[in-house]
Write a structure and sequence with these properties.
The complex is a heterodimer of chains A (about 260) and B (about 850). Chain A has a single domain (about 1-15, about 50-230, about 245-265), classed as MetI-like (MetI-like fold). Chain A has 9 helices and no strands. With about 260 residues, chain A is mainly alpha-helical. Chain B has about 850 residues and is an alpha+beta fold. In chain B, about 45% of the residues lie in helices and about 15% in strands. Chain B is built from 26 helices and 19 strands. In chain B, the strands form 5 sheets. In chain B, strands 11, 12, 13, 14, 15, 16 and 17 form a 7-stranded mixed sheet that branches. In chain B, strands 1-10-9-8 form a 4-stranded mixed sheet, sandwiched between helices. Chain B has a 4-stranded antiparallel sheet with strand order 4-5-7-6, covered by helices on one side. In chain B, helix 8 packs antiparallel against helix 10 (about 360-370). The chains are: A mainly alpha (about 260), B alpha+beta (about 850). At the A-B interface, helix 3, helix 4, helix 7, helix 8 and helix 9 of A face helix 8, helix 10, helix 15, helix 20 and helix 21 of B.
C-alpha cells in the first residue's frame, strides 16, 4: 500500500508539475532530431516529429488522470445518491435502479464508449462521459449493498425512532459509514479509468492532437517499432506504473479497512 | 461431488459448440485485386481534367493512347503498331492496330483517332495538355488504319506527348459520358464507382492484346497514411502502388508477407523560389540558398532516406540526365560569402509556405533550420491545398515553397514567363526552341544536358530530391506495371502467383455463412434451453427468459436512441457537400431515413428478429453479410483467448492456493498484479515487437483467411489471443485462488484431510469443484469482455474482424453498421450470461427450483 500510495502521489505531483514545467516543450517539433534514442538531453528519446518523449509523457499525465478522476466523480456523484435512495426506499425505485444497472452491465464498457464517441465525435470530454457512465452502476451497487446492511444496524434504527426522515438518515448516518468502501472503490475505478482512457486514446477516440495522451503515443509508435522500439516502450510502462500504483493503493486501503472493521 | 465435473464440461461444450458454429470459411478468390490509392479522381475523363488520380486508375487499364511510355520514358507502340517519320520530322504516319474494339463494341480506326486528337487540340478544347499538340497543323486518314499527322514546325517531343493520359482514344458517341462511365479500349472495363470509397474495374474479355490475369480490380481510396498502413497490414488492400508513409516502409520490408518496390517517379521535389521578388531575384542569393541546404539531411528527415538527390529539374533515371548534384555541395561558409557578396551579410527574412503533404511539411521544417544557419530567417506557414493553388500558384504571393513537380518532361515550365516561380531567361528559351526543332536522338540528348545545366547554374529553384516510388504489395501479387513516367499502375499483366490463396477481400462477394450456421445453432440453442427449463423448473426458467428478453429490448432502444441523436445526416455524408437537396432526399428515402423514429426502430428491430440487420450505408450490402464475414475472425479469436485464459489461470490459481503464503504464491500474486495492470493493446505491441519484428516467427498482424489452412489461421490468431488472454487470466487466477482458499477452510475439506487425503488430493477432488462456481461467473463475464476487448486487439494486429468493421464504420459514419454490431455484441453478452446462469443452476443442485428451496 505504501508503494501504491507513493506511486499515486508521484503521478499526481508529475501531473501538477507538467502544468507549469516540462524538461522541454512537449509540442516543439524538431524533425532534424527525430526518433533519437534516449540520451542526456532527451531521457526517453524523441518521437517521429522530434518531440521530447519524456515531456510528452509528463504532459499526458494530467489528461490520463484527469479523465479518470472526473469519470469517477461523475460515477460517484450519480451512483452514490442512487444507491442510497434505492436502499432507503426499497420497492419500485430500487427495482428500477437495479434493473437499469443490469442493463448498463450488459453493455461491454468499451463498446458503449465507442458508441458514444461515434455519435458525439472523439475527444477527452466524450471519453470522460463514456467512462463516467460506467462508474455509475458500480457506485450505485456498492452504495446500495453497504447501505442495506447499515439500515439494519442499531444506530439507524435509533435515528428512525428519533423521527429522522430517510433522507436525513441516509446523509447523516449511512453515508459517513460508507466512506471507506467508497474510497476503495474509487481507487479501483480510477485505475480502470486510466486503462480505459488509454484504450480509447489508442484507437483514436480519446484526447485529440496536439493534446498529449499516453494511448495515442502508443498508437503512433506502432508503425515505427521497426525504426525505434523504445517509442512503444515508455508510454506502456507509464500506464502500467500508474495502474499498478492505483491497484496497490486500492488493495492496501481495503485490507486496512477490513482489519478495522473486524477489530472494531 | 465428482459427478459435477462431466456436467460442467458438457455445459462448456454446448457453449463452445454454439459459438464455434460461426467459423465457416469464405470463398477464395485469386483473380480479384484491391489496390489502395491516396486520392480519389474528381471525374473519370482524363481529356478534360488534369487530376493525376484519373490516370492512376484508368491509364493503360481502361483507356489507351496511340503510344505508351516504357520504363525509360520512351514512346513504344500501343494502339499504333508502328510509325514512320517523314519530311524531316514534319509528318508522322501511324499504322494503327486492327481488330481493336471499345468496351461498348465500337471498332477503333483512324477516324476515331482523328476525332480524339482533333477534339483535344481544337480551339475551344479544355484539354489540360492542349499546348503539347500546338505544333500539329492537320490530321488525315488516308485509309481506315493509317493516320497522318502534319506539323507546322518540328516537335521532338510529339511522340512522348501522345502517350499522355490527356490524349487517350475516345469515341464520339460515348465521349460525353466518360466523366462517369469511361469507355476505352483497355484490358479492363469500368464497372462501378462508389464515391468516397472505391472504383471497380472488370476484365475486358475481348481485349485486343493478352487477356488480363485479373478478373476484377478495385481501387480503394485511403487518404490517411496511417490508414494506408493499417489497410495493408489487415489485407483490406493487397497493393499500395504509391505508398504515402515512408516511415513504415521498413516495417513492410521486414514482413515476409509483403514486397516493397522502390523506384523513382518523375516528381522533382523543389524548394521553389519566387524569382520575381528581391532578394530572391539575385542569382547569388539563390546560389547561397543552394549551398545552404544539406540534401542528405532533408531526404533523411522528410522521407526517411527514400529519394535520390537531384541537382536540376530532371529525373536521374532518364538516359539524358546529367548528374549535377555536386554543383552546390553543402557549405555554410560559401553560402554566407555569397550572401555577403549580394549585400545580405546580415541575412534576411522570407516566408516559406508549405502545402499539406508530409514531404513538404517535414522537409520545410528542416529547410527552415538549415537556412537559419546561414542567416536566412524563413517563417514557416502551413497552408491547405486550396490556399496553395490560390496564393502560390495563381497569385504568386510567396517567397519560398516546397513542392513536387510530378509531370514528366516538364522542364518547359522554365520557359514560361508567367509561371509561378517567374524565371525568365532568353538563353534558356533558345535552348528549348533548339530542342523542339531536333528529332535526332543525339542532338536532343545534348540539348537536354544544356537545359539541365542552365537551370542548375541559375539556381532557379533549390533542387532537393526525386520523389521516390514506394509501392508495397502482397508478395503473391506479381506483374504490377509500376515503372512508368506517368506514375500509373498498369494492371494488364498483374496476377496472383500460384501459391497464393487469398481471402476474398471485399464484403459483397460471399455466401452468407450465418445462414448456413443459423439452423444448427438454433436447434442446439433450443435443445439447451429445453434441457435447462427441465432442470431448473419452467417457472424459474420463464422468469429468467423474460428478464433476458426485456434486457435485450431495452438495450436495443438505448442503442437506437444514442445513434439517433448523432449529428449529421448519413445521406448528406454519403453524397458529399455538392449534392443537391433532391438527390439527398432520394437517398434518404432509399435508406428509409424519412420515416418517423418509432417506425424506423420497429423496422430495424423487426428485421433483426428475422436476421436482417439492414443495409450498410457505405457498402450498400446487407449488414448481416458484413458481420458474418467478420465473425469468422472475431469469434474464433475470443474462444481461443478464452481457452488460453483458462489454461493459464487454473494452474496459476491452484498453485497460489496450494502454496499459500510461500514463494510460489508470492510469485503468482506478483505476476497477476502485473497482469491486471498491463493494457492488452500494449501487450500486443510488445508481442509484435518481440515475435514479429525481432524474432520474425510470425507476421506483425493481418489474417490470411481460413482458406489458407487451419494452421495458418490459428498461427495468425495466436499473438492476439495471448494479448487478450493474459490480463484476463490474471483476474481469473486471483478469483480462483481466493475461492480455493475459502473452500479449503470448509468443514468437508477438513474432514477429507482428516480421513487421510493429502493436501493436493483434497484440493483437486473437493475444493476445486466447489470453487468453480464463482470462477464460472467471472468466466462468463470475461467472455463478453474478450468479445468486446477484441475490438481494440483487432486494431493492434490489423485483423479483419468486428472491431475493424466498427471503426471503419465510425469513420465513414455508417451508423447502421455501428448500431447493428453493438446490438449483436450486447446480444452475445446477455445470452452468455444467461447461459452461465443456467449452467450454474444445472451444476449446483442447491440453486435448482428456487421456489421450493
Amino acid at each position: 500500500m505504501i508503494i501504491g500510495a507513493f506511486i499515486t502521489v508521484t503521478l499526481v505531483l508529475i501531473a501538477l508539475l507538467a502544468l507549469v514545467w516540462t524538461p522541454l516543450d512537449p509540442g516543439a517539433i524538431d524533425i532534424a532530431h527525430k526518433l533519437l534514442s534516449p540520451s542526456a538531453v532527451h531521457w526517453f528519446g524523441t518521437d517521429q516529429l522530434g518531440r521530447d518523449v519524456l515531456s510528452m509523457l509528463m504532459a499526458g499525465t494530467h489528461n490520463s488522470l484527469g479523465v479518470a478522476c472526473v469519470a469517477v466523480l461523475i460515477g460517484a456523484g450519480c451512483g452514490v445518491p442512487l444507491g442510497l435512495w434505492a436502499a432507503a426506499r426499497g420497492g419500485w425505485p430500487e427495482e428500477i435502479i437495479m434493473r437499469g444497472n443490469d442493463l448498463l452491465f450488459a453493455f461491454p464498457s468499451l463498446l458503449l464508449a465507442i458508441l458514444i464517441t461515434a455519435v458525439w465525435g472523439p475527444g477527452a470530454l466524450t471519453a470522460i462521459i463514456a467512462i463516467g457512465i460506467f462508474n455509475v452502476p458500480v457506485f450505485a451497487r456498492v452504495t446500495r449493498g453497504g447501505a442495506l446492511g447499515l439500515w439494519q444496524r442499531d444506530f439507524t434504527m435509533a435515528a428512525r425512532i428519533a423521527g429522522k426522515g430517510r433522507f436525513a438518515i441516509s446523509v447523516e448516518h449511512v453515508l459517513p459509514n460508507l466512506s471507506s468502501i467508497l474510497l476503495v472503490q474509487a481507487t479501483i475505478q480510477l485505475s480502470l479509468g486510466v486503462l480505459a482512457e488509454a484504450g480509447l486514446s489508442y484507437v483514436g477516440l480519446g484526447a485529440q492532437p496536439p493534446e498529449p495522451s499516453w494511448g495515442r503515443m502508443l498508437n503512433e509508435a506502432q508503425t515505427l517499432t521497426a525504426l525505434s522500439p523504445t517509442l512503444a516502450l515508455f508510454p506502456g510502462l507509464v500506464i502500467v506504473f500508474a495502474v499498478l500504483g492505483l491497484n496497490l493503493l486500492g488493495d492496501g486501503l481495503r485490507d486496512r479497512f477490513d482489519r478495522k472493521l473486524r477489530s472494531g | 461431488m465428482t459427478q459435477r465435473r462431466p456436467r460442467l464440461a458438457a455445459a462448456m461444450g454446448v457453449l463452445i459448440a454454439l459459438l464455434a458454429a460461426g467459423s465457416a470459411g469464405a470463398a477464395a478468390s485469386r483473380d480479384s485485386l484491391v489496390i489502395g490509392l491516396q486520392l480519389e479522381p474528381p471525374v473519370l475523363d482524363p481529356t478534360l481534367n488534369p487530376a493525376a488520380a484519373i490516370g492512376e486508375v484508368l491509364q493503360g487499364n481502361v483507356f489507351e493512347a496511340l503510344v505508351r511510355f516504357d520504363s525509360n520514358g520512351e514512346a513504344v507502340p500501343c494502339l499504333a503498331e508502328r510509325w514512320d517519320i517523314a519530311d524531316g520530322g514534319l509528318t508522322y504516319v501511324f499504322h494503327l492496330r486492327a481488330r481493336v474494339r471499345f468496351h461498348d463494341g465500337t471498332p477503333f480506326d483512324a477516324g476515331i483517332a482523328k476525332f480524339s486528337l482533333d477534339r483535344a487540340r481544337a480551339a475551344d478544347s479544355l484539354n489540360p495538355q492542349k499546348s503539347r499538340l500546338a505544333a500539329i497543323s492537320g490530321v488525315e486518314t488516308p485509309d481506315a488504319y493509317t493516320l497522318v499527322i502534319r506539323l507546322s514546325r518540328r516537335s521532338g517531343s510529339l511522340l512522348q506527348s501522345l502517350a499522355w493520359t490527356a490524349f487517350v482514344m475516345v469515341t464520339p458517341a460515348t465521349v460525353q459520358g466518360n466523366a462517369t462511365h469511361p469507355n476505352g479500349t483497355g484490358p479492363f472495363k469500368f464497372a462501378s464507382w462508389r464515391r468516397g470509397d472505391s472504383i471497380e474495374l472488370v476484365r475486358n474479355e475481348h481485349y485486343w492484346g493478352e487477356r488480363a490475369g485479373l478478373a476484377r480490380a478495385v481501387f480503394k481510396f485511403i487518404s490517411e497514411p496511417a490508414a494506408a498502413y493499417a489497410a495493408l497490414m489487415a489485407g483490406d488492400v493487397q497493393a499500395f502502388p504509391n505508398y504515402p508513409a515512408p516511415e513504415s516502409v521498413a516495417q513492410f520490408k521486414a514482413d515476409p508477407r509483403f514486397n516493397v518496390y522502390r523506384g523513382s517517379t518523375e516528381g522533382e521535389t523543389l524548394l521553389a523560389l519566387n524569382n520575381r521578388r528581391p532578394p530572391l531575384n539575385d542569382v547569388n542569393v539563390r546560389r547561397a540558398i543552394a549551398f545552404a541546404l544539406d540534401r542528405a539531411a532533408i531526404i533523411d528527415g522528410a522521407m526517411y532516406g527514400y529519394g535520390d538527390p537531384i541537382g536540376s529539374h530532371f529525373p536521374p533515371r532518364n538516359p539524358a540526365a546529367v548528374d549535377l548534384t555536386g554543383r552546390y555541395p553543402h557549405s555554410v561558409q560559401t553560402a554566407r560569402r555569397l550572401l555577403a557578396k549580394a549585400g545580405y551579410a546580415q541575412g534576411f527574412t522570407v516566408t516559406l509556405k508549405l502545402p499539406p503533404p508530409a514531404y513538404a511539411r517535414r522537409g520545410g521544417e528542416i529547410i527552415a533550420a538549415q537556412l537559419a544557419a546561414v542567416g536566412i530567417r524563413a517563417k514557416v506557414e502551413n497552408i491547405e491545398w486550396a490556399q496553395w493553388l490560390d496564393q502560390v500558384f495563381a497569385r504568386r504571393d510567396f517567397d519560398m515553397t516546397v513542392i513536387q513537380h510530378a509531370e514528366p518532361m516538364d522542364y518547359d515550365i522554365y520557359g514560361r514567363d508567367d509561371y509561378y516561380f517567374g524565371y525568365s531567361n532568353a538563353q534558356f528559351k533558345a535552348l528549348l526552341a533548339q530542342l523542339e526543332d531536333s528529332v535526332d536522338p543525339q542532338d536532343r540528348r545534348r540539348t537536354l544536358g544544356a537545359i539541365q545545366r542552365k537551370i542548375s547554374d541559375d539556381a532557379v529553384n533549390a533542387f532537393l530530391f526525386q520523389y521516390p516510388k514506394l509501392s508495397v504489395h502482397d508478395r503473391h501479387v506479381v506483374g504490377l506495371g509500376l515503372d512508368n513516367p506517368l506514375n500509373t499502375t498498369e494492371l494488364g499483366r498483374a496476377h496472383f502467383d500460384d501459391t497464393a490463396a487469398m481471402q476474398a477481400p471485399d464484403a459483397d462477394t460471399h455466401s452468407s455463412p450465418l445462414r448456413r450456421m443459423g439452423w444448427p445453432a438454433l436447434i442446439l440453442l433450443l435443445v439447451a434451453l429445453a434441457a435447462a427449463a427441465r432442470v431448473i423448473g419452467p417457472a424459474a426458467f420463464g422468469r429468467r427468459l423474460l428478464i433476458l428478453t426485456a434486457t435485450l429490448l431495452l438495450s436495443s432502444v438505448v442503442i437506437f436512441a444514442i445513434v439517433q441523436v448523432a449529428p449529421g445526416d448519413p445521406a448528406r455524408f454519403m453524397l458529399g457537400l455538392q449534392a443537391d437537396a433532391q438527390s439527398v432526399a432520394a437517398v434518404r428515402h432509399e435508406l428509409g431515413l424519412d420515416g418517423s423514429a418509432a417506425h424506423r426502430y420497429l423496422e430495424w428491430i423487426g428485421g433483426a428478429v428475422r436476421g436482417d440487420l439492414g443495409s450498410s450505408y457505405t457498402y450498400r450490402v446487407p449488414v448481416r453479410g458484413l458481420i458474418a464475414q467478420r465473425l469468422q475472425v472475431s469469434l474464433p479469436l475470443s474462444l481461443y483467448a478464452l481457452v488460453l485464459t483458462v489454461l493459464i489461470a487454473f494452474p496459476a490459481g491452484i498453485v497460489g492456493a496450494a502454496y499459500r503464503g510461500r514463494a510460489a504464491d508470492a510469485a503468482v500474486s506478483t505476476a497477476t498484479q502485473l497482469g491486471i495492470a498491463i493494457p492488452n493493446f500494449w501487450l500486443g505491441i510488445l508481442l509484435i515487437l518481440v515475435f514479429a519484428i525481432s524474432l520474425r516467427w510470425v507476421s506483425a498482424g493481418g489474417f490470411p483467411g481460413w482458406d489458407a489452412g487451419l494452421w495458418h489461421g490459428i498461427k495468425a490468431l495466436t499473438l492476439p489471443a495471448i494479448a487478450l488472454a493474459l490480463p484476463q487470466a490474471a483476474i481469473l487466477a486471483r478469483v480462483l485462488r481466493a475461492a480455493l482458499i475459502e473452500t479449503l477452510q470448509e468443514d468437508y475439506v477438513r474432514t477429507a484431510r482428516a480421513k487421510g487425503l493429502t493436501q493436493g488430493a483434497a484440493l483437486l477432488r473437493h475444493a476445486l469443484p466447489n470453487a468453480l462456481l464463482p470462477v464460472l461467473t467471472v468466466l462468463g463475464m470475461q467472455f463478453s469482455f474478450l468479445l468486446a476487448g477484441g475490438i481494440i486487439i483487432e486494431n493492434v494486429f490489423f485483423l479483419p474482424g468486428l472491431g475493424r468493421l466498427v471503426f471503419q464504420a465510425i469513420v465513414q459514419r455508417d451508423l447502421m453498421v455501428v448500431q447493428s454490431v453493438v446490438l449483436l455484441l450486447v446480444f452475445a453478452v446477455v445470452v452468455v450470461s444467461f447461459l452461465v446462469e443456467l449452467a450454474y443452476a444445472w451444476i449446483d443442485p442447491r440453486l435448482r427450483r428456487p421456489a421450493t428451496a
